[in-house]
From TrEMBL:
Pfam families: AA_permease_2 (PF13520)
Organism taxonomic ancestry: Bacteria, Bacillati, Actinomycetota, Actinomycetes, Micrococcales
Protein name, UniProt field: Amino acid transporter
Source species: Diaminobutyricimonas aerilata
Record flagged with keyword Metal-binding: no
InterPro entries: AA/rel_permease1, APC_superfamily
Lineage top rank: taxon: Bacteria
Amino acid sequence: MTQTQQPQQTELKRVIGPKLLLLFVIGDILGTGIYALTGQVAAEVGGAAWVPFLIAFAVALLTAFSYLELVTKYPETAGAALYVHKAFRIHVVTFIVCFIVMCSGITSASTASQAFAANLAAGFGLDLAPGGILLIALAFMLLVMLVNFRGVSESMGVNVVLTLVELSGLVLVILISAWALAGGQGDWSQVVLFQSPDDKNTLLAVSTATSLAFFAMVGFEDSVNMAEETKDPSRIFPRIMLTGLGIAAVIYVLVSICAVALVPIGELTDNETPLVTVVQTAAPDFPIADLLPFISMFAVANTALINMMMASRLLYGMSKKGVLPAFLGRVHSTRRTPWTAIIFTTVLSLGLITFVSLGQDSPVVVMLGGTTSLLLLTVFAVVNVTVLVLRRDRVEHKHFHAGTVFPIIGALACAWLVFPFSSGRDPQQYLIAGVLLAVGLVLWAITYFTGGRRAYREDVDTRVIATTDLDGRD
């Protein structure tokens, strides 16, 4: 630990107990994925839509074991970038991991904007063409930019409220669906009916659906950034993170079972508001059917705002560390917010939304949600390897131990869902991810060859980007 990092650690107050941490984990996982992508998962595997969510939970659980060992071993704010830098000490690798996390925030927020627009249209009964949905999504991202510029910051109290709102929508879907199914509605045989596109075998169809469903499971890893503000993190993190993951998995499996049992698969496919359709089918005269689109809007709006705040602050932090051009580190004189980073990340998001909306045949939420899971699964594969590399680094205090088998299986499972031959992903997802990474590498190269090399040499034994907060997505 360097001298310049000590003051930051002592200033952070450990105020987060088990209950608040649990709500943070659950709130970070829940969001756009389940509200917008249930129908797309069903399109790949039919009525067995709950299976990919269950497999995604298993992969997330394996990776969670690795994160738990690392966060209890190094209870510091920074996340994947810190762990990778500790393990490999290669600045460009640390930068790539950090930038990928930032990009995943942008793609996640862009996915949320599309879901927000679709739910807004459903809530107000608007029959909009794709161009109209696009305009609403773009306007929403500009609104997020303005809120971000004003300096809105996340607090645990706000997170509790937002989490309860997100949970309420999903619990209502489950309860209303259960009531309808108990009354004889629906078709239980659909739940075990496997259907895949004609050109895919069973394994590839399940892998494709799991790659998409994984977008709904991400977010658990962000809780490691609260380590320095958590009471006794080495003790409470394991049970709280695993409990949060388990609760989210149960909710997701129940929601997906209710969806396929009540609504014909054809109606779920390419449906951008699947849970609204589920509630309207289960109880067409029940007032909650009209309220759910607005609950969904609130949930995905929270996802977008948190992720765009993370992306802009992370870009700002990398600029202040001398890893990206200095102009991205400018702070507004009155609002005290990183305005150039906010504008830059917003422009990237607007470009992504427009490109995917106008240039692709696949649904926008599939392209952007799939790209988000692609980016994060890549990071998770690296983290699973990192935990094994850092076994040589001993610490004095007790910490969680993930074993050897789980990280290896986790790394292989994440890699399986990343590679094109095994995941069945749309090639455009790799294109989007590649373009974003290319933008980052260009910015890094400009900085490095215009004076960054000296900073890199001076900082060779310190944690580059280690004090930058990496924050939530989904």
